[in-house]
Amino acid sequence: MINKIVAVQGNNPSKLNPITDTSVFLAHEIQNKNYKVFYYDPKDLSVINSKVIASGFFIKFDYENKKYPKPLKKHPKFLNKNTLNP
Predict the structure, then answer these.
(1) How far is residue 24's CA from residue 18's CA, in Å, rounded to a whole number?
(2) Radius of gyration of the chain (CA)
(3) For residue 80, what pLDDT is reported?
(4) Which terminus of the chain, N or C, has less C-beta within 10 A?
(5) Residue 74 is inside which H or E element, if any?
(6) What is the DSSP string of 37-86?
């Protein structure tokens, strides 16, 4: 089975307004297509040994209930189509 993951770069999710922020809407739509959302802050993006790495977390958005997003688990991930695995 292939894992479908989309990496989203943005500020801390607690600062997002779930009613007006289009990032929340778009992330929710991505989830509806059975993708996992990996969320990271721009300051946590690095290049190490020619690999792009972001320290972030998988997150669940609940757009219908207009609730703030909930981080699922935090860890670094390689942002490379061949190495990004949950």
Answers:
(1) 6
(2) 13
(3) 58
(4) N
(5) strand 67-78
(6) EEEEEEEEEEEETTEEEEEEEEEEEETTTTEEEEEEEEEEEE-STTT---
For residue 48, which amino acid is it?
Answer: I
| Chain CA centroid to CA 80, Å | 14
Average pLDDT by stretches of 10, the chain with 86 residues = 81 78 82 89 87 85 63 60 48
Q: Tokens 């292939």 — which residue?
A: 2
**Multiple choice CATH, 5-78, 3.40.50.720, 3.40.50.20, 3.20.20.70, 3.40.440.10:** 3.40.50.20
pTM above 0.85, yes or no: no
40 contacts 69 by C-beta, under 8 angstroms: no
Cβ-contact 16, 69 below 8 angstroms: yes
